[in-house]
Each structure stands twice: as structure tokens, then as C-alpha cells.
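User: Structure please.
Assistant: Input sequence and predicted structure:
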Amino acid sequence: MDDRTKKKYERLARAMSSDSVMYMKDAILKSFEEDNFFDAIQENLDENKKAFLSRTNEEAAATNILAVATLDVIIYPLGTQGKFPIF
């Protein structure tokens, strides 16, 4: 995958993660309090993965681009906003 294509897929993954924050912020924060982030928003993560795979190619699907975006856009920024037991 060339650098330009990779950057495009990274932007897509970050946008999808940003949408998750926009629409699910309360559920995400609650999941941090209850220490069940992946269980609580698994349906949304699955939807993001399905949408990402439909808009990219097999090479992008084999990367961790979407997982990195989840960490960078959802977990780290929101996790540092409060005192949560998992952080």
C-alpha cells in the first residue's frame, strides 16, 4: 500500500471513530467507569469494521489502522478526561 492510500485509510478510520465518539460518548464514558469498553460498544466496533472493510481493500483490512484509530480517537482522549479504574 502506498503512503497516500494509507493516509486516506487512516483518515477514514479516524472519521469513523470520531463518529462513534459523537454518537456514543455517554456510553463510552460509562463503559470506562464499568471497565467493559469492548463489551459495551462491540456492536458499534463491528459496524465500523464492516464499513471500513467495505470501503477499503484486502491490504488495508489486514492492517491495524482501525484499531489504532480506536485507541487514538476514542480510548486515549476520553480515558484521560476522568478518573476511570481502567486507566
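The first helix runs from residue 3 to 34.
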